Amino acid sequence: MGAIPEADPDEVLETKPFKFVTGYDARFPQQNQTKHCWQNYVDYYKCTTAKGEDFRPCKQFYHAFRSLCPKAWTDRWDGQREAGNFPVHLDK
Amino acid sequence: MIYKSKSNFQNHPFHLVSPSPWPLFTSLSLFILTTATVLFMHGFQGFQYLVALAVFNVIYVMALWFRDVISEGTYLGNHTNAVQKGLNLGVGLFIISEVFFFLAIFWAFFHSAISPSVELGAQWPPLGIQAVNPFELPLLNTILLLSSGVTITYAHHSLIQGNRKGALYGTVVTIILAVIFTFFQGVEYSVSSFTISDSVYGSCFYFGTGFHGLHVIIGTAFLAVGLWRLAAYHLTDHHHLGYESGILYWHFVDVVWLFLYISVYYWGY
Amino acid sequence: MFPQRNLGRLSQRAAQQMRSAPVRSTIQRRFNSAEAKPSWIVDNEFNRERAAVKHHAASTSDLWRKLSIFAVIPCLIGGGLNAYNLWSEHWEHWEHMPPLEERTEYPYQNIRVKNFPWGDGDKTIFWNSDVNYHNKDKAT
């Protein structure tokens, strides 16, 4: 994953086919990528909590967890964050 | 020697046991106990009374069986040196099986704790679970158990030396320390802010410490029987296998606690 | 020292052992021994080891007696005081925490699959309402 380039305001948005955007991460060398998905989900929301939703470097975590996590999992975690009982302090 | 008098001697040192109802009765009691417990846990009404009755029955039959073994060993002289060797081996193998029982419990703990699952937020202990401070009651309990190991060694060496008073005092103090330990574990359980149903942390915690507590209670009973036999002049300075087995079992329980203290209480804090 | 009824058996055993050990040494030992050692204890490996074990136990039991008094008692007092202090600190800290109902209940807490077969079906065995709380309207 290289640096994400600044958005070009003139660029025409176009829907592309799904692409697996997550490369190898040495912290998660096993076949089981559950925690790889989890870490990127946590990192994304920590990142946006600290830097705001528009902070572009947060996007790499977003792309990573979106391509790694089953939707049912992220839906459940979204629900927990809304209910205030997601089991990680995202502001610390 | 004429045939008649020859038949009154056995030319080997082994104990050929006589027919006894207790193995069958123990099996039946244990069968009723497991069946009643399963039905109770599946919500069948009134089965708690059968569970209680079965527990009583198991203990009662065991007491009768051990009474017979005590008669054979103490009064009938069936426990020769060769028989004692076999009994010792049996106790050793039993304790090895207990080691593997606790190994399985520790396996469950480490499986859950070394790499906590994402459902727990990948941390141990998970948020919302206030683990017990290991330097509070658990440290005192560690001291209590190690102390009981010292006092029971004093009692044992006193017995071998032929010092009846020392053996009695040492065993009494050991049992008192054991009862205090169980009491403090009860206090710890009742003021703990998490229960056995609070995540796999609670499950592993009470699985390990609960079975250890059960073994402490059994070990205390084992030592108490040793104390009674000491007081009743059953034991001599060189023949006290039941007492020594109780001490060995007690040391085993003590060592399990040390592992629990280090891994579940201290490392898992 | 020995009840009357045992005497017959003892003399029998002494006679047996005299047969196995050299007669002279047994008799000599009986006259020479300064201790009040029963005459039937012959000088063989079994009895020597047994005597050695007993002799050894005399010195080690004294060590463990001293440890029981001079190590165990101070350790118990120290551990007891330490536990008492931390116990008080713990409840001091507990009082400053938000009430049980206001604390976050995470999804993995108070797992109930079906009712417990006792009480109201919701309380675990060591349930203590002062420190345990089950929020039944927990979201997720």
CATH class of the domain at 34-83 in chain A: Mainly Alpha
**Strand share of the residues of chain A?**
under 5%
Question: Could you name the CATH homologous superfamily of the largest domain in chain B?
Answer: Cytochrome c oxidase, subunit III, four-helix bundle
Pick out the low-confidence regions of chain A.
Answer: none
How many strands in all of chain A? 0
N-to-C order of helices and strands of chain A: HHH
Shape of chain A: globular
Key attributes of the depicted protein:
heterotrimer; A: 92 residues; mainly alpha; Arc Repressor Mutant, subunit A; 45% helix; 0% strand; globular; C: mainly alpha; Cyt_c_oxidase_su6a_CS (chain C); mitochondrion inner membrane (chain C); transmembrane (chain C); oxidoreductase (chain C)
Compact summary:
Chain B has 269 residues and is mainly α. Helices cover 74% and strands 0% of the residues of chain B.
Describe the protein.
The complex is a heterotrimer of chains A (92), B (269) and C (140). Chain A is an all-alpha fold. Chain A has a domain at 34-83: Arc Repressor Mutant, subunit A, CATH 1.10.10.140. Chain A has 3 helices and no strands. In chain A, helix 1 (34-51) runs antiparallel to helix 2 (59-68). Chain A is globular, with a radius of gyration of 14 Å. Chain A starts with 33 loop residues before the first helix and ends in a 9-residue tail after the last helix. Chain B starts with a helix and ends with a helix. Chain B has 2 domains: 19-78, Orthogonal Bundle (Helix Hairpins); 81-267, Four Helix Bundle (Hemerythrin (Met), subunit A). Chain B is 74% helix and 0% strand. In chain B, 33% of the residues are buried. Chain B has 8 helices and no strands. Chain B is globular and about 85 Å long. Chain B is mostly helical and 269 residues long. Among the domains of chain C are: 7-70, no CATH class; 78-102. Chain C is elongated, with a radius of gyration of 34 Å. Residues 1-8 and 17-34 of chain C have low confidence and may be disordered. The chains are: A mainly alpha (92), B mainly alpha (269), C mainly alpha (140).
